[in-house]
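Revision sheet: structure tokens.
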Amino acid sequence: MKTAIYGNKTRIIPREPDGDAFFQIYSGGMRAAELMDKTWYIGPILENGHACSKGTMSRSELQSFLKHYRFKFVAFQIIGWTDGDYHCSWSPFIPGQTKHMLSPADLWSNIRANLAQNRTKSDLRSLGQPTYEKIAAILDSHTDVERVSASISLSLRNLDISVEQICDFYNEKLTNHLALGHLEGIRSSSSLDNNLYAYVHSFFMHLGAARDYIAAFCSIRIGKDPKTIDSFAKLIDTLRSEHVERDEILKIFLAKGYIKNKETSSTKFETSGWMKEATDLRNEFMHRRPFGERFLEKMGFAEPVDRDLGLYRYKRPIIINDKEEDALEIIIDHYRKMTDLCSIISNKCGFDASITTLTDEDIISYRESK
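Predicted:
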């Protein structure tokens, strides 16, 4: 016997119309939205007691304005809906680079895809009647390089999402402070803060994961098993001078000061520089205490930047070595260094990081959807 759905009221669940928007994301809760080609709005700005978006500026004017007030550029973001389906593209800004269309996560995904395409092409073509299960079995019989490249890509993508969520939080909180008149450093909190604790925890977790998968990738290059050498600490314990001398990626670590010769040994190495700093901070928030545990971390505030212009920035304290810093500023610094490192390595590793192309011969099965 069927159970009836009681009631006679029906409401259609709304679907967003097709559309997209292009943003530039900055520190402090600021962001810019492209109104039309090369014309931008910026916000939130305080005007007549309201949080507003103001414009318009050219791209060069926008970048000059925000640089003048020391807002850091975080990422390019494209969002939109197609047939009601939400999509988002996020590409971190890496200082010194001029092209940002492909993010480091994209580059490592391309490496994995191109390796897999070369490996599986003949096996997929030989399938008589392809099924999802047969195709999956072939695709999942990946090499160590494929597997680790995919893991680097996914970790970087998770890192992107964490930073995107933190920036969204900052933007919403800055807008709320301006709209409610909570200015001049007045500190406040809400239940939404619990989300920020999770986003920051996620950032440091995925920062460590990307670091360790890069280490596993390096272990393959020096002839070690990535299932055994699966962390940066284990890689460092394994490294010897002859490994670094003949590997381009390890030379990059050495040149950037992320590893250095151990004082007590002529052939061994230890973690140093930014890599040590990032590892220590990751261990702090993953093992010793969660972000949000300290009293000062439980409230944020809007700090005036230029009162005449209605320009403010949101700040959320994070306590590091008993010193109050801004959480997003700290995260941007580590985010930039990790994405820069992974971008450089993708171009130096000797594998194809270009966008995978498909021809008619690569299509082994298709299904029409109504």
